[in-house]
Design a protein that fits this description.
outer membrane lipoprotein receptor (LolB), chain A; 3 helices
């Protein structure tokens, strides 16, 4: 179960869930896509984000080593919950309500980018001049702990140093406005999901 929790590190930033809102909000400014990431620092490996319906459906696959422990697994945001499971433990998983709904409702502009800026401002980050990353014009926030780049609400780069623990995540390949197979958002029926309290 520890591995399942490891898989969630930094992913709430990029896994929005807005179903059930009276007003249709779009967490991403892009309809669909597949984003590949690399991790270094306290977590080493790679990940792939699949999303559709402007981020209303999202699935993150991670293959990484954190704290000396390997983890291969999924976080799928669909319906009213996030579902998390490790491929090495195919019979068990975690299920939790996605806090992004509440956070976005409290956002001053009701969109994911303004929420991200607000969240990081509480951590001491300030808005900085835009930067280009992988050819995309990105919004930037910087602080004593590092910096974060986003493009259309999508995490492009996260570079953090918190009390000596270094975390680095960056997009390495971007495909947008392409068909994304619905299989990535399917919740396995053979897994028993345990309810988990909201993490934030």
């Amino acid at each position: 179960m520890k591995k399942l929790i490891v898989l969630t590190v930094s992913l709430f930033i990029i896994l929005p869930k807005l179903a059930g809102q009276e007003i249709t909000l779009k967490p991403y400014g892009i309809k669909s896509g597949i984003i590949e990431y690399s991790y270094s620092g306290d977590k080493v490996g790679k990940g792939t984000l699949y999303f559709d319906d402007y981020g209303m459906k999202s699935a993150m696959y991670t293959d990484a080593v954190a704290d000396g422990e390997k983890g291969k697994g999924w976080i799928v945001t669909f319906g009213d919950y996030q579902y998390i499971w490790d491929l090495d433990h195919p019979d068990e998983g975690l299920k939790l309500e996605n806090p992004i709904i509440t956070w976005l409702a409290e956002s001053s502009k009701g969109d994911f980018e303004s929420f991200t800026e607000s969240m990081f401002s509480k951590m001491g980050f300030n808005k900085a001049p835009d930067e280009t990353f992988l050819g995309k014009p990105c919004k930037v926030v910087k602080g004593d702990m590092g910096k974060v780049l986003t493009w259309n609400g999508i995490l492009m780069l996260l570079d953090m140093n918190v009390m000596g623990t270094v975390s680095h995540q960056e997009a390495t390949k971007i495909q947008t406005n392409i068909p994304v197979d619905a299989k990535y958002f399917a919740i396995p029926k053979n897994i028993k999901f345990s309810e988990m309290p909201m993490m934030f």
